[in-house]
Amino acid sequence: MVLKRVYLDNGATTAMSPEVLSAMSPFLTSHYGNPSSIHFMGEEASAGIRKARGQVASTLNCYPSEITFTSGGTESDNLAILGAMPGTGRKKFITTEIEHSAVLETCPELVRLGFEVVRIGVDRDGLLIMDDLAEAMGPDVGIVSVMAANNVIGTIQDIRQAAEIAHEHGALFHTDAVQAYGKMNLDVKADGIDLLSASGHKIHGPKGVGFLYHRSGIRISPLMVGGGQEAGLRSSTENVPGIVGLGAAAESAVSSMSRDVPSMTKIRDRIIRETLSIEGAYLNGSRDRRICNNAHFGFKGVNGKDLVLRLSDEGIAASAESACSAGSSEPSHVLTAIGRTPQEAMSALRITTSKYTTEEDAEALLEVLPGIIGSLRA
Ligand SMILES: Cc1ncc(COP(=O)(O)O)c(C=O)c1O
After folding, report:
1. Does the CB atom of residue 321 touch ligand 1 within 6 A?
2. Cα 174 to averaged position of ligand 1 atoms, centre (Å)
3. Considering 191, 220, 255, which residue would you say is the last residue of a domain?
4. Domain total for the chain?
5. Pocket of ligand 1, candidates 81, 105, 157, 179: which has the most ligand atoms within 8 Å of its Cβ, to mutate?
6. Residues 277 and 247 reside in one and the same domain
7. Is 3 exposed, middle or buried (CB count within 10 Å of its CB: 0-12, 13-18, 19+)?
8. Which residue has the least CA distance to atom 16 on ligand 1?
9. 83: containing domain
10. Considering Cα of 290, then 293, then 295, then 296, what sign does the dihedral take?
11. pLDDT tens across 205-225, in order?
12. 330: pLDDT strictly greater than 90
């Protein structure tokens, strides 16, 4: 018997959508010119990039020139923080305890470069403690970085309020929107965002491509130097098919958000409701301020990794906390930051849906979950 494949790990990555693949296809086959070439094939490739830059800019209410394509969310976070911090002329960087490692791992690097780093805590729901942020602020703060939605527990931060606090002290505001982009309305002007990171493969686009929005006028030093592509901010021949795919994915995600978000929310809510009826199950993260596709649980007396492997045996792909830390045997820093004990933090199941997730997928999970948990406890 061939097992049905049920994919519930969309926080790790998503399936590429057919419209993205067809937008990319010419750039993987006939339109293979180098965008820096001055002949017609170079122009064909640079037209593809121009279109994608416009598509991305229109999803955020910014100018195309404020978008720099990168190799993904990690590079965008690095460029935003390590690239922009020196130009602020200030010495302190503030972020939260629950950021993705793409942000957190810039901290030791900043310290090595002579900057000071402050990490602000969160409450039991994973919400940033705004009073602590306000207290840590001062004229020496260059950048405040607060993720829009958490990759483990899905908590949505009040980035507008965090940006306001940053701006009151003349600091720049960066948000890692890798999990939020395409699932939440983001308007860089209305939200007060100076720098925003996003990634293609979380929005049904290709892997290995992302972008950084940077408000015009912000001084950024490139992390990579060479041929001067991307207005000198990101040297290396552009990943043209990837960029074209990202543009198509961005346009599609944002334009179908009003249809996809309610349907993802409905399926997520059913998963949360029915899973919480299992004895000893609890939800991690906020019940209300939660990204539409995330459900994150703990189960008393059950190891998360064992659970994920048993689900996998049933043809269900889920995750223990997030793909980036899946190989680790340490408890998630996000779960310990919201007050879970290390033991509780080792019992974690992250279910992340997408616009392609169906009620049948949810049923397949809910049908086997109580039995697996029971047998793991036994
Ligand atoms: C919140 C967040 N930031 C950054 C990243 C890194 O993105 P990428 O895989 O495109 O480098 C991820 C990926 O899981 C993420 O969830």
Report:
1. no
2. 15
3. 255
4. 2
5. 179
6. no
7. exposed
8. 151
9. 18-255
10. negative
11. 999 999 999 999 999 999 999
12. no
